[in-house]
Specification:
The chain is built from nine helices and no strands. It is mainly α.
């Protein structure tokens, strides 16, 4: 049966996209933003940006790719705004490094927390590389930057995460010294 005269084709694509792929889009946005609330907002904003103008001819797959791109761009734009705000209101912001409240917490690896410490571009490159499984050239094309810049963001981001996730060497040395004394 033909579509209703009052229901354009793009509305059925939006409905199918949200029904079938809404959870996947939200998970993608969560990995990029690190917050469930921000993830939901990013998906909503991306859907509005994608379908605010009448767009016929979208399939669900092409609409999903377009919405994913809009999620990433919206997140990066927000990161730029936050960076500008930090330059103006630097005295109001708290330090990015918080002291651990418990020694047991120090031993745990919290990938989400480590992702949150990265700059928006570094985080976007790491998520696109390891979650979306894109190659460096594809990431460069997505972000409209050079492949060398993508490599730098990946290298810097992974290095920052690796340093934060290394076991405390002083503690390991103390334990070894204690074991040697026991003999």
């Amino acid at each position: 049966m033909a579509e209703d005269a009052g229901s354009p084709a793009w509305e059925s694509v939006v409905t199918k996209l949200v029904t079938e792929r809404g959870d996947a889009l939200t998970r993608y946005a969560y990995l990029i933003s690190g917050s469930p609330d921000d993830a939901a907002d990013l998906v909503q904003d991306a859907l509005v940006k994608t379908f605010s103008r009448v767009r016929n001819g979208f399939s669900v797959a092409s609409a999903e790719a377009y919405v994913r791109r809009a999620i990433l761009n919206t997140f990066l734009d927000g990161g730029r705004r936050r960076t500008r705000w930090r330059k103006v209101a630097h005295l109001v912001l708290a330090s990015d490094v918080a002291e651990s409240r418990a020694t047991a917490t120090e031993a745990q690896i919290d990938m989400r927390a480590e992702l949150m410490k990265l700059s928006p571009r570094e985080r976007a490159c790491i998520v696109l590389r390891y979650y979306e499984d894109l190659k460096v050239d594809d990431i460069a094309e997505w972000l409209d930057i050079s492949p060398g810049t993508v490599k730098r963001y990946l290298s810097d981001g992974l290095a920052r995460m690796a340093v934060a996730m290394q076991p405390d060497r002083a503690t390991a040395t103390d334990i070894e010294a204690g074991e040697n004394r026991a003999y």
